[in-house]
Amino acid sequence: MHIFSPVIISLGDANPDRTISSVEEAAEELLTEWPIDDGDRYYEAVKACLDCITSNADPDFARTAFVQAAEEAGMSIKGDIFRHL
After folding, report:
1. Neighbours of 74 (CB within 10 A)
2. Beta partners for 9?
3. How many CB atoms lie within 10 A of CB 69?
4. What angle do CA 27, 8, 4 make, to 5 degrees?
5. Res. 84 pLDDT band, cuts 50 70 90
6. pTM to 2 decimals?
7. What percent of the chain has a predicted confidence (pLDDT) above 90?
8. N or C, where is the chain less crowded by C-beta within 10 Å?
9. Nearest by Cα to 32 from 22, 42, 17
10. At what angle do helices 23-32 and 59-72 cross, to 10 degrees?
11. What are the backbone dihedrals phi and psi of residue 31, each rounded to the nearest 5 degrees, phi first?
12. Which residues, 6 or more positions from 28, have their beta carbon under 8 angstroms from its beta carbon?
């Protein structure tokens, strides 16, 4: 697993918050549960996650891309005190 500082995303009142703490969890979230799959930040996040998984790139790079994709999708990010933006 490629671990990074946890990111807590809120998908709205009807859904529980999700804590994402690895590149693999971020990739799964992006590819299965993401509400908007056609934004530039979305594509960048998917690529960053897959690059990290396949070539051991920096997990923090994938984390930053994931946070940016969440913001692009209008998600609330909670407790992101380790933010690298």
Report:
1. 9
2. 18, 77
3. 27
4. 55
5. very low
6. 0.88
7. 71
8. C
9. 42
10. 30
11. -85, -15
12. none
